[in-house]
Amino acid sequence: MSQTVDRALSILPLLAEGPADLGQVADRLGVHKSTALRLLRTLHEHGLVYRQSDQHYRLGARLFALAQEAMENLDVREIAHPHLVRLNEQCGHTVHLAVYEEHEVLYIDKVDSRYPVRMYSRIGKPVAITVAAVAKLLLADLPEPERRALAEKLDYPAYTPRSTPNAEAFLRELAKVRDQGWATDLGGHEESINCVAAPIRGADGRVAAAMSVSAPNVVVTADELLALLPLVRRTADAISAEFSGRPPVTEQPSQNIRKDHV
């Protein structure tokens, strides 16, 4: 039975490449045409495969409907939360999850630090969009025209001397973040707080959410927090894999992680 299921499921990625006839399906599976036909008929009955008038088979509309329904019912917070808790247990620092909605970046989950010094961020509260590491990741993934239009509309409060001063500086930071695949806020919002963040990607490869680890410099230095970046990225990759249904991405070694990174 398991072999039959395996063969039937192997037909779907074949047809994703384009319509195929019975002989092509049989050849790809390494089975007799009669076996391939039985599998195709079963998939056809469930709407996962459609037989065209030219006797070629293609993916059925039911498959796309199921995929769409599954995507709509995915809850990134529900999927991410156990990973965030595990990361918090490993490092002890505050962990956030954020999304971009209606031109705001909002925290949708938080696991508090085990240290006495706590952050005052709250779930549902917008982040400081021009300096927050999670915001940089979410906005960096926007198409370039949308990114520029948004950057030019924003105000740029001088929270600290390290805050982003203007739209052009912000766009340069977003370009760097887009290229390197991670972001930091090293005293840009509060001089005493540092943060490292990594993206969570959906099935389409776009950034669906961003997660971060934050800590005051009385607990760890900026360099010590940056040393956690590989762990943060592995956690984000694990969430992305579960959220998108893809295997985890093998992390590439980070280079030149310095305190002057965004």
Strand line-up across the major sheet: 4-3-7-6-5
Sheet with most strands: 5 strands, antiparallel
| Span between termini | 53 Å
Number of helices: 10
The gross shape turns out to be: elongated
Helix content: 40-55%
Question: What's the mean pLDDT score?
Answer: 88
What is the SS-derived class?
alpha+beta
**Percent in strands:** 15-25%
- Uncertain residue segments: 251-258
Q: Supply Rg.
A: 23 Å
- The run of helices and strands is HHHEEHHEEHHHEEEHH
Number of strands: 7
Question: Would you summarize the structure shown here?
Answer:
This protein is 45% helix and 17% strand.
Write a structural description.
- The protein has 262 residues and is α+β, with helices and mostly antiparallel strands.
- 45% of the residues lie in helices and 17% in strands.
- Helix 2 (22-29) crosses helix 3 (33-45) and helix 6 packs across helix 8 (167-180).
- The radius of gyration is 23 Å and the shape is elongated.
- The relative contact order is 0.11.
Tags for this entry?
10 helices, two-stranded antiparallel sheet, alpha+beta, 262 residues, 45% helix
